[in-house]
Amino acid sequence: MNGVLIVDKPSGLTSHDVVNRVRRILDQPSVGHLGTLDPLATGLLPLVTGSLTRLAQFYTSSEKTYEGTIRFGFATDTYDSDGEPSSPTQTVNVVLEELRDLAGGFVGLIDQMPPPFSAKKIKGVPAYRLARKHKDVPLKVVKVEIKEFKILGVEGDRASFRARVASGTYMRSVAHDMGQRMGCGAHLTSLRRTAVGEFTLGDAHTLEELSAAARVNRPDEVEAMFIHPRRLLPQFPCVTESDEIAAQIRNGRAANLPELSQAKQVKVFAGQRELIAIATRIAGTLFHPRIVLPATGPMGIAKEPSP
Q1: Are 222 and 234 contained in the same domain?
Q2: Are residues 187 and 81 in the same domain?
Q3: What does DSSP say about strands 238-240 and 265-270: parallel, antiparallel, or unpaired?
Q4: Catalytic sites, residue numbers
Q5: Which residue range is the domain that position 245 belongs to?
Q6: 32, 129, 243, 301: which has the highest count of C-beta atoms within 10 A?
Q7: Is residue 178 located within the same domain as residue 205?
Q8: Please, which residues have CB within 8 angstroms of residue 239's CB and are 6 or more apart in sequence?
Q9: Do residues 160 and 103 touch, judged by C-beta distance below 8 A?
Q10: 292 pLDDT above the threshold of 70
Q11: Are residues 39 and 185 in the same domain?
């Protein structure tokens, strides 16, 4: 099975937990995700299956949108409510306008220190593994971009927000840094991802929905949960080619695609649903397949095994 599936991740599961669950549900060993969500977080987790895992390279810089809540009054070692307090607790009543002014200072290109409990690699070792062993976590400040950061409301010591950020931005670090600037400490108490690239929560399905369709052996229902291939990578134009040209491209050979002379990269289809390649323009109307996807076989859906 080759496709892109959007899962509405529940809180308490890691992104890898979701990947493993979907592997069992679909009886598909080749499943990956397009951007980690912390266990605390919920929401949009795009998964790629089968040969379409090769499309992951095109999503590494996808913009993401979040909604969430920050609690002021103390910091935690994980920068969210899953961690242990790392500063004294203070009684705080945040003021909406003051917080909105503070949030404005985080918009744009900023320096950000990733959380010590994160998947950032230190000499090949994820930072969270070192942090769990109470070892030194020598992370470096990185440049990130926050395109929008709005405080939606406040209640007591908590503030709700919406943010639109470039890839690599940690909202946990934003919450932590806001607490430091206010001098009272802060941490993230909830986070929901509502969009990644071209995908929104309207595309998402729960693990329970996917599992139910698989258990009753309804491959059409399962297939309908996957994103239509023509919706993928909307920045690349689509072209549907004849059997002759499709065979040429499947064999890794360049082909003339005169209808797309201005495009730099294109999605090449055989029929309405079968994405066979991403091709790059060499010169004029000549395109060379950058990646070639194998022919789609019949969809086989297996029941999720009992735990």
Answers
A1: no
A2: yes
A3: parallel
A4: 38
A5: 229-293
A6: 301
A7: no
A8: 257, 259, 260, 266, 267, 268, 269
A9: no
A10: yes
A11: no
We report the CATH number of the domain holding residue 210 as 3.30.2350.10
How many structural domains is the chain composed of?
Answer: 3
DSSP-based three-state secondary structure for 263? coil
Distance CA 286, CA 267 (A): 14
User: Quick one: how far is CA 107 from the chain centroid?
Assistant: 21
User: Are 191 and 254 contained in the same domain?
Assistant: no
Structure tokens that stand for 193 in this block? 């991802």
d(CA 30, CA 294): 14
Residue (of 178, 189, 191) closest to 98 by Cα position: 178
Longest CA pairwise span in the chain (Å) = 71
Residue 109, phi then psi, degrees to nearest 5: -80, 120
Residue 24 parent element (H or E): helix 15-26
Residues 150 and 181 both lie in one domain: yes
**Residue 80 backbone phi and psi in degrees, to 5:** -140, 180
- 3-class DSSP state of 298: coil
Name the DSSP class of 202.
G
DSSP 107: S
Q: What's the pTM value of the predicted model, to 2 decimals?
A: 0.89
3-class SS of residue 104: helix
Does the structure show a pLDDT above 80 at 298? Answer: no
Q: Return the structure tokens found at 78.
A: 């994980």
Q: pLDDT tens, 56-71?
A: 999 988 999 999 999 9
CA-closest candidate to residue 211, choices 190, 195, 230, 225: 225
pLDDT confidence of 8, banded at 50, 70, 90?
A: very high
Q: In this structure, are residues 242 and 272 in contact, taking their beta carbons and an 8 Å threshold?
A: no
Q: Kindly state whether residues 234 and 221 are assigned to the same domain.
A: no
